Structures are given as structure tokens and as C-alpha cells.
Amino acid sequence: MNIAAIGSQERLEELNLVLSSAGLSYTRLESTKNIQFQSYDVIFDLNFDDHPGSIVDYHDIPAGTTLFLSCVKIQLEAVVPKKLWELVIGINAMPTFLKRKALEYCSLKTDMDENLIRSMGWQEANRTSSRVGLVSPRVVFMIINEAYYTLQEGTADRKDIDKGMKLGTAYPFGPFEWCDMIGLKDVYETLRAMHEDTGDERYRICSLLKTEHLRASNS
Predict the structure, then answer these.
(1) What's the order of all strands across the beta sheet hosting 102-107?
(2) Residue 11, domain extent
(3) What number of other Cβ atoms are within 10 A of residue 55's Cβ?
(4) Among 27, 71, 85, 181, which one is most buried in terms of CB atoms within 10 A?
(5) Could you give the number of structural domains in the chain?
């Protein structure tokens, strides 16, 4: 299987962990420009969340190529033209999520063959509805946001919140630990996208989280 991938070093390393477990490797592409699509059976675009306009570079992708696009911050139907629906699979490629045993995905076609996902190293394929935030990021990022509200109110400090979450829920990480591993930028942008998409107050970004994001992005 010929596989190509576009993405940050961190996300590509996670992808490699999964693919290598199935005896597979990938060719790294620097961008979507001038891709020789005929060379690949599968293309992973792990940057697509941040560059949805790059969909125009895939308009001539040949039938038979499967295109995995990161789609937590966006909804595929909003950016993917209908002629590509049969080729596109949306995935949760947020840092720390890609290397799990189960790949969270959505498909715009009804007859998606999950055996392809399993053949590339994931033990399970969890299909979700096509929506901003998918499922896991909605839950985890909302918990991170609530943790920021707790910190902002002075109820507890970061270490105690992390410790309490792990002891009380058996989560692998506390919310601030998780936020550090995922990256505050992705957490902030996803929460903003979910709030804009749903209007749900549960996703309104805590002002402390927003302030920390703005300070980090301007440093």
C-alpha cells in the first residue's frame, strides 16, 4: 500500500507509530501543491483542519485514492465538494488522539469499508456523525474548558485539578496535562469552532483560557 502524509512532525510521528505496527510506512509530503496523486493509494492530510482551502488541490485526485482529512475544527460538508465525497474520510487527528487503538472517523458515503482502517494499524474504527468537534474532542475539550473555569474561580490550582480528575474519573491525564499535550492553540480554536457551530454555552471559552492562548500566540 502506497501511503503519503502531510502534517506537523508531532502528528506524523503519531501516524508512524500506528502504521509501523502494521508493517507500513509513508512518504512525507511538504504540501498539497503538485502532488502526483497517481502514486498513492492513501493520502493523510493532517493539516486540513487549519488549511481547508487546500481542498482545491485535490480536485483531480483519481478514483480509488482514499483521502483522510483531519476535520475536528470544520465540518466536511462545508468545504468538500460533492464529487469528492466518495473518496474522503474525515478523522480526529488532534495530537494524542491519532495514536490510540481506535481511529475516530466520519464518512460522507454510507458504505465505508472499515477494514481499510484496521489494515493500517488501528484495532478499531469508531464512526461518528460529520460535525464540528466529532465526539472525543467535544468531551475532552469541554472538560479542559471547565477546568479553566475552576482555576479562574480560585477553587483549586492546576496540579490539584489534574490530580482530582485522574483519581476521581480514572482518566489517563488531568485536563491541564491533556491541554499541554494537545496544544492550547488547537484546544482554543476547536472550542471556538464548536461554540460558533452550535451556539451552545457549554463551549463558551473561559476568559482565562482565551487570555493564555492570546499571550502564547503573541510571544
Answers:
(1) 27-28, 3-6, 42-45, 66-70, 88-91, 102-107, 124-127
(2) 3-127
(3) 19
(4) 71
(5) 2
